[in-house]
Amino acid sequence: MLTDLSKALLQRRAAGLYRTRTISDGPQSTRMTIDGETFLAFCSNDYLALANDPELLAAASLGLERYGIGAGASHLINGHSQAHHELEKALADFTRFPRTLLFSTGYMANMAVATALLGRHDAIFADRFNHASLNDAALLSQASLRRYHHLDLDHLESQLTQTPAKCKLVMTDAVFSMDGDCAPIGDLLVLCQRFGAWLLVDDAHGFGVLGEQGRGSLFQTHFPENHVPHLIYMATLGKAAGVAGAFVAAQTEVIETLIQQGRTYGYTTASPPLLAHTLLTSLQIIAQQSWRREQLVRLIERLRQGLVSLPWQLLPSTTAIQPLLVRDNEQALQLSAALRERGIWVPAIRPPTVPKGTARLRITLSAAHTLAEIDQLTLTLRDLKNTL
Ligand code: PMP
């Protein structure tokens, strides 16, 4: 693979799959400034508009004063601060699990769960549309990996029936990151219980947004107060929560095992305590300011109404992730570029992030968007329908 990099890069470019980065200046929000030009942006995962919230910025300043900038070492050496400790307790309370454990990123949290809890003789079952971090975690665990058709519980059931493995883990995104649709968590739990399998729910895009007070996707499915023993919940803190990091929520023995054996927990510097300090405020805002979720619901409705009868299919999603299916890679890039020329930033998502032939514009909404801005996007897309 290292032998012909230039050829591989050229091929990638020819297939319309070359990835580029944009340098944006200033805070990321519903506006993005690139090379001095400002765009209306529909691409961030800052669903509740917390990333630049003044209350959070004030909390970050206090956290900086109290803890300084760096954690200094891993959690197992001396990087575990009072702020981390309090945040873990607050998150356990909020999600109604006995314990939680903080990670620097969601990617690392998923890695730790799969590699600390499973090994060569075990089996993992994963929805085909799961996030890459879950797939990578499964591969690194060395357990056998079978991927079931998207949301197809009959297919999953037939795979569970066939496996000889004693220890089984089913993994699913709660809200699928490139599609915006939701996993049937209640039904998955029932199925897992029937087969004695564990269930890992990755709620990167549901935590803070869905469920009562933003407690996450589990609370949309009548999550019982008395916790389910074989359920492991992972959510990220860099999306709706507006900061960075992630946590795993589970029974005490699971959390203790992750502390003992989670390599992406123990062998990395703890995230700066000022972030944990800030996240305590973020959690309060999530619980108390339901207007942010209500505004998102209004925006989603308006967008979906505005995007009917376009040549591109709006995928069936009720969440803040609203993908417009273009299919062809080049056409998705063209549509994204045409929007950009008109002052609107929506990224094109291509394989391998999504399956071949399903390139799309991934429109994401934030509580900071206005109805007028949604109309600006939909009217521009209607205009483009005739020119592209
Ligand atoms: N899971 C899902 C479903 C995600 O969308 C993401 C991030 N895009 C992650 C995990 C990884 O989270 P992080 O960005 O904190 O590494």
Automatic annotation (TrEMBL):
Report which superkingdom the organism of origin falls in: Bacteria
- What's its top-level EC category? transferase
> Where is pyridoxal 5'-phosphate bound in this sequence?
106-107, 177, 205, 236
Required cofactors, per record? Answer: pyridoxal 5'-phosphate
Q: Which UniProt keywords apply?
A: Acyltransferase, Biotin biosynthesis, Pyridoxal phosphate, Transferase
Q: Which GO terms describe its biological process?
A: biotin biosynthetic process
SUPFAM superfamilies found in the cross-reference section: PLP-dependent transferases
- Alphabetized Pfam families for the sequence: Aminotran_1_2
Q: Which GO terms describe its molecular function?
A: 8-amino-7-oxononanoate synthase activity; pyridoxal phosphate binding
Task: Please report the stretch or stretches of sequence annotated as the Aminotransferase class I/classII large domain.
Answer: 39-377
N6-(pyridoxal phosphate)lysine occurs at which residues? 239
The EC number(s) this enzyme carries: 2.3.1.47
Residues given in the record as substrate binding sites: 19, 131, 353
Entries under InterPro entries matching the protein: Aminotransferase_I/II_large, AON_synthase_class-II, AONS_Archaea/Proteobacteria, AONS_Proteobacteria, PyrdxlP-dep_Trfase, PyrdxlP-dep_Trfase_major, PyrdxlP-dep_Trfase_small
Signal peptide positions (record)? none
* Family indicated by similarity: Belongs to the class-II pyridoxal-phosphate-dependent aminotransferase family. BioF subfamily.
Describe the function of this protein: Catalyzes the decarboxylative condensation of pimeloyl-[acyl-carrier protein] and L-alanine to produce 8-amino-7-oxononanoate (AON), [acyl-carrier protein], and carbon dioxide.
| Complexes and interactors | Homodimer.
> How is this protein named in the record?
8-amino-7-oxononanoate synthase
* Organism field: Nitrosomonas mobilis
